[in-house]
Design goal:
By secondary structure, this protein is an all-beta fold. The chain is built from no helices and 10 strands. β1 and β2 form a beta hairpin. The protein is globular, with a radius of gyration of 15 Å. The N and C termini lie far apart (30 Å).
């Protein structure tokens, strides 16, 4: 395997269409969603905890939850839904990018008729350890 400029092993290239999705119930949400952890904390020098690919079938959700010393970014690739963030309901669709702040409550529901696909990126702040 080749090395990155910092001497660590180079990360593999991931192809979303070739991934096997694990079925999980996310944070007590409705129904099972598809999930694949693309990269984990050990893959980064920066305080990135993970990069996930999630697929929510119609009617499923990631339940309302909070994080500690980290922030999450949701990048919607496909589908439509509603995100609840600190009591505010936000319509999301392809190209929507939302930051969920540390300590904030958030959850996501697919309200459309096709799967809602997104990337979830969690980043630590203030040296915080991964909590979710």
């Amino acid at each position: 395997m080749s090395e990155a400029a910092d001497g660590r092993p180079a990360l593999p290239v991931k192809r979303l269409g070739a991934l096997t999705l694990e079925r999980v119930r996310a944070h007590g949400g409705d129904g099972a969603i598809g999930f694949h952890r693309l990269f984990d904390a050990h893959d980064f020098a920066a305080p990135v905890h993970f990069v996930d690919h999630a697929v929510l079938p119609p009617g499923t959700s990631i339940g309302l939850h909070r994080h500690g010393a980290d922030e999450e970014l949701y990048l919607v690739l496909e589908g439509e839904g509603t995100l609840v963030r600190d009591g505010e309901t936000i319509a999301v669709g392809p190209g929507t990018v939302v930051v969920n702040r540390a300590g904030g409550e958030h959850g996501l529901r697919n309200t459309g008729s096709v799967p809602l696909r997104l990337f979830v990126i969690e980043v630590g702040i203030g040296g915080g350890e991964h909590e979710s």
